[in-house]
């Protein structure tokens, strides 16, 4: 896979987001690529912030921003009509538009016309590479870790990035493998798994993580959840094609219902472990859970430490918040490498 070349730095567009889980593209870029982010731009009614300066396109342009990134990842990946004025404003100000939505920028005549008139690019990151093969199921060389979750939008990408960085800090050869639009924007390469035709999902996961030296680790960003009524298909294809030796279960403290759908309760962490092992054994017979990544953003430091200790004692696995790091995260890395 070739590197994805994007115009940088970015102005992050938050639309009118009111739920942090639906602004994960902006939040991920601000957290993991802060040097690429000049500021953020939200519409009236937006209550989510990535913690960056609030700038208009004209102000961000003066500060050196080159692209407006749609930082929202809403249900269905849609671009609503009431965003159009802001997106055209950015094009007129001299920005290229970068989107990770399912809806393609070129499909909107007003955006296509404005881009042509301004001489700007419309760049859709959520475009799979051509000629993805059908999966072979062949066991590949190298080692693989996959992050899985009790739900979507709760830390699978952050966990994979943190673990890849943790491995490299220990002198271990490791790559972060991006499977979603935000990860691709951070890493510069990857495969947008949720845009791949279902018959080719496992094949896409195979090319995402090719043969590697025996001591090399690919740390693969998970997608969705095996228990999500809308996204389980993507999760399963990624699991089978990734052939992970180990997996980390990601969970957010306090979340009880599946995000974006009504009437579906979150599975328990033991249910996720059991289901992942049962399904993952098809292509990785020795697959095992190495630990739990716990998103404790809603807790203060003392409460987070207590919850990490409680869950580790209850489940018998190392538990850590990869953002807070500390000794618990070191123990999680130890378990991955055991």
Structural class, judged by helices and strands?
alpha/beta
How do the strands of the widest beta sheet line up side by side? 7-8-6-9-10-11
Approximate shape? globular
Q: Number of helical segments?
A: 11
Beta strands, count: 11
Helix content: 25-40%
Please write the string of helix (H) and strand (E) elements: EHEHEHEHEEHEHHEHEHEHEH
Strand content: 15-25%
Outline the biggest β-sheet.
6 strands, parallel
Low-pLDDT segments, ≥5 res? none
Task: Write up what this structure looks like.
The chain is α/β, with parallel strands linked by helices and 338 residues long. It contains 11 helices and 11 strands. It has helices spanning 24-32, 57-62, 84-92, 109-118, 156-169, 181-187, 201-208, 232-242, 269-280, 301-315, 327-337; strands at residues 10-15, 37-42, 67-70, 96-99, 122-124, 143-149, 174-177, 217-220, 246-252, 288-295, 319-320. The strands form 2 sheets. Strands 7-8-6-9-10-11 form a 6-stranded parallel sheet, with helices on both faces. The chain has a 5-stranded parallel sheet with strand order 2-1-3-4-5, with helices on both faces. Strand 1 (10-15), helix 1 and strand 2 form a beta-alpha-beta unit. The longest helix has 15 residues, at 301-315. It is globular, with a radius of gyration of 20 Å. It starts with 9 loop residues before the first strand and ends with a helix.
